[in-house]
Design goal:
The protein has 241 residues and is an all-alpha fold. The chain has helices spanning 6-12, 22-25, 29-39, 48-56, 66-73, 78-86, 111-117, 128-139, 148-158, 162-169, 175-184, 202-217, 223-240, and strands at 14-15, 45-46. The protein has a two-stranded parallel sheet. The protein is elongated, with a radius of gyration of 26 Å. Mean pLDDT is 92; it is low at 237-241.
Length: 241
Amino acid sequence: MDPFNGYDDLAAKRLRAIGESVFRDDPLRLLRGPRLEDELPFDFRLVPETEELIRRDSALVTQPSKERILAELRRLSVDGFRRLDELGLLEPLGGSLTSIERAGAAGYPDYDLVVVFGENLLKLPISNETRRFARTLLRAEPPANDSPRAIHRFRRATEPWALEALAFLGARGFDDAVIRDRETEPRKPLVRGGELELPPGPEVGRLLEEIAEERAAGTITTKEEALEYARRNAGSVRSDG
């Protein structure tokens, strides 16, 4: 039995809704249609009549649970997001193709979602790690230049996703500098907090970060120089505040 002539559609690589109410009955099908079109091999395509039904009911795309929406979005390729936009489904979900040329440039699983949805991705039920990843990329600023100091500062703000952040910012010209800095990064710090002879607190953390940056920049190379830097700058910090 083939009441809807499905075999003919399969042979012709057509995706067809079997009734006018299918998307109203379950609005998640609005995403499943283009997702199947994007995901299936052999270039299956939605038929024009089904495309029109999707456009007619596109405002319903936000009605399914956010978990179900996210599961469909995660399976889309760059072309899939473009297809959602063509069908009027991307904007209601909070997505945009403004930076779509940067999609596909990194291997992190939800990288493309950050490119397409930006801050709106944080409204979806993503994991804590993906939330940290998204916030890191959204807050990142490109390095001022490729100097060791600038690259160190950039990495401190974006690791372990420095390369993904460069892709997101359209600043892939700094990739080699980041990779080189990773490969040459010292395994151990010159000094630890307990060696600074200061009470525990934010000042110790600031000094350790500054020492690490000066070491990256090449102005400090020994433990003695690090301790001297801490003595000199700890005094100035206290006098400032």
